[in-house]
Amino acid sequence: MAEMKKEVTAEEEKLSIRDISIAAEAQTKQGDTFYLITQRWWQEWLEYVNQNQANTVNDGSASEHHLSGGSSALKRPSSIDNSDLIYEATSGDSSAGIELHDTLVEGTDYILLPQEMWNQLFEWYSGGPILPRKVINSGLSQTELAVEVYPLRLQLHLMPKDEHSTIRISKKETIRQLHKKACEIFSLNPELVRIWDYFSHQKHALMNDMDKTLNDANIQMDQDILVEVSNGNSAGAVNSYHENGTADNGTVAVVRPSQSNFSSAEALSLSKGSSRNGTAELSQSQLLASSGTDKTYGSSGVSTRGSACGLTGLLNLGNTCFMNSAIQCLVHTPEFARYFREDYYQEINRQNPLGMVGELALAFGDLLRKLWAPGRTPVAPRPFKAKLARFAPQFSGYNQHDSQELLAFLVDGLHEDLNRVKHKPYIKSKDADGRPDEEVADEYWANHIARNDSIIVDVCQGQYKSTLVCPVCNKVSVTFDPFMYLSLPLQSATTRSMTVTIFTCDGSALPAACTVTVPKQGRCRDLIQALGNSCSLKHNEKLLLAEIRGHLIHRFLEDPLITLSSIKDDDHLAAYKIPKLTKNSKFLQLIHRREEREIGISQSNVGWKPYGTPLVSPISCDDVITRGDIQLIVHRMLSPMLRTENPGFNCVSRSKTSAAAAAANASCLAASSEACIDSSLVNDDPRQKDVSSSKLVNLEKLPLQLVDENNACIDLTVGEDKSVKLSSSSMSILVFADWSQKLLDNYDTRYIENLPEVTKCGPATKKARTEPLSLYSCLEAFLREEPLVPEDMWYCPTCKERRQASKKLDLWRLPEVLVIHLKRFSYSLSMKHKLETFVNFPIHDFDLTKYVANKNNSRRQLYELYALTNHYGGMGSGHYTAHIKLLDENRWYNFDDSHISPINEEDVKSAAAYVLFYRRVKTDHHHSVSNGTVSSGGQNSFSSRK
Asked: What's one GO BP annotation on this UniProt entry (predicted)?
């Protein structure tokens, strides 16, 4: 049959194969046979049978040169040659049969043909070798049809004879069939043979459930099987510990006749000009039909659990690098690697309304096992992505997303799918009520575990201490809340320089600008403390901070917890020195006004406009206040600015004024300078009647107007003994000082005219640009006390009202695996922004001991970095990768989608670091965990709770 029948033309071949393909559509069933054929030969055959359409014009009419017999006519392909799919020198062990190359990819190296198609092509062309493969049930539901291109390759070790053999066997075969084959290969009496999961020269699990399939028994590619011949005594201990296990070894190609067969038929109808593209289309459809189950194969001689494990890439399905990087970090978390490679199915919670009926956990476990199988080519995570999109539509499609958001959803979803608590009890939290923190924390944790108990909680969850303080009644509420990861703020600098102008209310010093350094993420109390230290604030004084806008006081910054980040660089701040003891008092605000004239020929008056900086002085409400009292207070506030050469304004000790002014102008230490007026005005209450009557006569009356409670202006230049009625509804008394040109000649008002900006904007120094930010600084900023945002105010149980309480977080209980998210991205209604700040994070000896509030825990809290995700580029067009340390090798690798390459440890740190994964450094009394294996060989410290 080697010669093609002469009556069969290329066109007839094409139509015949197309009809066979259509007939086979929707008829594939378990147990059918498919055949591998090399992509190279298939492409050549497609071009041959489509050449008649090479010169067909767009309107469908045939070209005059159609098959004119020129040299352009393609010859019929030679016989089928699949030799490029197999090893040239196959093993002499006949039980292994013909071995395919380990790195073949469907659609690139080969395609799969139904048996009828193969039979027809083989009848026409003959050749070989013939490579049949069976259709099996696969997938999570075991209802998907898949071609098992790479059956399990198992290494049989016969003991005590120390012989070995390699066999190929379908993962759908049972343990009984494996047992039978082993007995046949070594010519053994089945009654005397037991088979074991064998690893590192040790027996692990006795394979005695004869009806269980190898797939259900979690047998992996290249697994070692011990064939033990006993002396007739079948007794023996059974170790139930399973190191291996996979639900799907990734050695299958999913078959969907409606897609793959149709694609074959469709490719036959393509024109010659597009036949190569058509074949690519065929390859793509077949790859799609595989539902992400890549052709991944074990390599001979590679240890099942050795260094080759885990070095498997993930194909980028179209902007899925955000997902790939997060998945790689999770699957290389040793506790998860071990858990999902063991029998975790019994813990799947299908009844949890907060979960995904177990499907997300199954899809993740299936993907993890594929990534941990040895010697594999990159995996396309399509089944996992499909499940993810089903339960989290925000991740559907092929747009770029935030890797940390995906990670948060995935970890939470896995927890709910694997929650060992099937019926969550209702537990009402109790208030601390002064009880010891240790007692309250343990109570909260016990309540949490009563409702949430999974491998995720075992490994990743820690506990905060959260303290809320009511700003009104000072009620303190302490709770202890679980956390899955830490999201740390990221600022480009840890400190900030701020300039504030300091004013005195007693005339003891001229206004002076003071620049201090404060924490960039600090509070107003930090600024006030720094200013007080710089200007030598006395023990009986305090600073009243105010923001000045338009020559008026915009707001008093009285709340010490106001964030400094809310103060912009171009704002103007004033700090007023006032006595601490100001009970039952109001603040007199002196607003300066200047007469403005219209520029032009007439130069007519326009009116009085605010100018300069308001001055503030406390005023007691206990005594009767007269107009003369206010005149004295204002005189005292303005006295440092009085020009000494002007004799029209009486002022005692003018020489002292000049000295004080000079000292104040030099530095902020002028708060202790001598007063510019006599001691009776400075040391005594200026509102006393004798002062009002005896001293005001020596001072020229200032053009002042007081705004009363009806918003009417009262002239304070007349009726100095008349009392002033203070508004009961306002804490401020507004007084306008109208500065005429004559008055301006007597006072040097330049000290109040222009306030400096809070931060003078300019190019950052090179040191500031390159100074790294410590991870410890980020953590400290995260744990710093801060007020709640207005939309998240706290209901105070004492006040019975919602309050903007201050909140302080402390770490109380740390997890085995600590995940830290660096908040590089900020979002607003108008824009998205990324911080490119380099964070200096420790790789070894990340010491959190001093940050844990539970001081009864004497254990040192040391962590070591083992994985991280990176984000490169901008918001929309960025790219994610992962750096991961294989603990067995003690070596770092870069996971860039499907490409994996070793990197040096010093290259792990970069400004692209986004999510960090730390493992607790084990102490001697803890089992050390290495890539999913309990190195002590003892009990799994994270085993399921029954």
From this structure: protein deubiquitination
